[in-house]
Design goal:
By secondary structure, the chain is mostly helical. The chain folds into two domains: about 1-30; about 30-98, Histidine kinase-like ATPase, C-terminal domain (Heat Shock Protein 90), CATH 3.30.565.10. Helix content is about 65%, strand content about 10%. It has helices at about 1-25, 40-55, 75-90; strands at about 35-40, 70-75. The two termini are about 25 Å apart.
Length: about 100
């Protein structure tokens, strides 16, 4: 029951942060920091962030990307995208048989 509550709190926090970002974007106050970022490094951070939830759900996260892949982007926005994708994948994946 506590685990479910923590998951819901995490989801609500993410929703609030998304709404705050949307408000900043609409008001013109959100400043993007576009720079050359290594998206593989950001992906690894997102994998590391979601790994405990994956382990708890008995889901393995496999990665298949090069060591470096640079892209012009805002690293915090890319990290949000990766976190959402990986979190959704972990939450909707059927657990593996032991």
């Amino acid at each position: 029951m506590i685990d479910r509550s923590l998951e819901r709190i995490k989801g609500m926090r993410n929703l609030i942060l998304d709404m705050l970002d949307l408000t900043r974007i609409e008001s013109g106050k959100k400043v993007r920091n576009i720079q050359n970022v290594d998206i593989c490094e950001i992906a690894q951070v997102s994998i590391d962030t979601n790994e405990p939830m994956a382990i708890q759900k008995n889901v393995r996260i496999h990665k298949n990307f090069p060591e470096n892949a640079y892209y012009q982007a805002d690293s915090s926005e890319i990290e949000i995208v990766f976190n959402n994708l990986i979190s959704n994948a972990v939450n909707t994946t059927m657990t593996m048989e032991k």
